[in-house]
Amino acid sequence: MLVTGRRVGLRLAAVACVAAVAGCAALDEAAVAETHRLEEGQFYVDVRADAGRAIDPVLLLPAALDPELAGTLGYGSRQGEFAPLLAALNDDLRRRSCCRHTAQAALPAGGPQLFIGSADSDLAPPEAAQQVLPQDRFAPMVLHLGRPSEAWRQAAAELMVRERASHAVVVWLGVSQYPKGRQGVFGKKVVLGTGHEVPIRFLTAEDKLLEVLQLKGVLVDAQGRIVRAGAEGILARDTPFAAQVLDVEKVLTDDALAAVLTTERRVDLPGAPPSWQVALGNLLAQLRGDRAALVVP
Question: Domains of the chain: which residue ranges?
Answer without folding.
Answer: 8-14+31-175+211-233+275-293
